[in-house]
Amino acid sequence: MSYARISLLVCLCSVLCGAALAQESPQKPAEGFADRNPRYRVQANDVIEIQFRYTPEFNFAATIQPDGFISSQITGDVHVAGLTLTEVSAAVAKGASGRLKDPEVGVALKDFVKPHFVVAGEVNHPGSFELRGNVGLIEAIAMSGGFVKDSAKRSQVILLRRVNSEIAEAKIYDLKKLMSPGQVHEDVMLRADDMLVVPRNAISKIEPFLHITSLGLYGMTMGLP
Questions:
Q1: % of the chain beyond a pLDDT of 70
Q2: Average predicted confidence (pLDDT) for the chain
Q3: Would 57 be classed as within a structural domain?
Q4: 71, 172, 193, 223: which has the highest count of C-beta atoms within 10 A?
Q5: Are 118 and 215 in the same domain?
Q6: How far apart are the first and last CA of the chain?
Q7: Pick from 122, 121, 178: which is nearest to 150 by CA?
Q8: Considering the domain boundaries, does residue 40 fall inside one?
Q9: Half-sphere exposure of 182 (CA within 13 A, CB side)
Q10: For residues 215 and 106, what is the distance between their CA atoms, to the nearest angstrom?
């Protein structure tokens, strides 16, 4: 296996697994790409500010560690990665309840990992791109330098979207048709941590839901370089 293929498969797995700490709460695959307006779930390297309403002397700010924990003298170690801000508040209050009676906790997000998406495979500049505003499939391909001439399978571009820390949903889109005159209005908007894969070879079949651990095998069958 070439270095380029290894790097691309590592990228594929890291994108879909890298924010797994932010998706540890169990979720069931939904029909299509459901839940289009989810609440933000904190993840490693986010910075949050914890405020105790009646005991402000215990207020603190914390950077979520790679293992998903924050820590303070009043709360001890509290695992917060994958939780909404409301859930973080409850988790911190529970951690502090050993020393404080019925603590009321507020949580503010001070800094967060910028949302991004990845384009891989037969494009001129594969890589990670910051997701700013509404970005559709066509614009994502343009941002990655366009298709590699004569090798990109434009009619079978794969969109991979994490459902949870173990499962990714896969859909195939015909960008050759989508980019035809009169079809642009059907473009699909990307979400944070989405990944577009432009294969080199035709795909006869792909499962609608993939286990993250099997994506390396799929990468080989897609004809990734």
A1: 75
A2: 80
A3: yes
A4: 193
A5: yes
A6: 9
A7: 122
A8: no
A9: 0
A10: 39
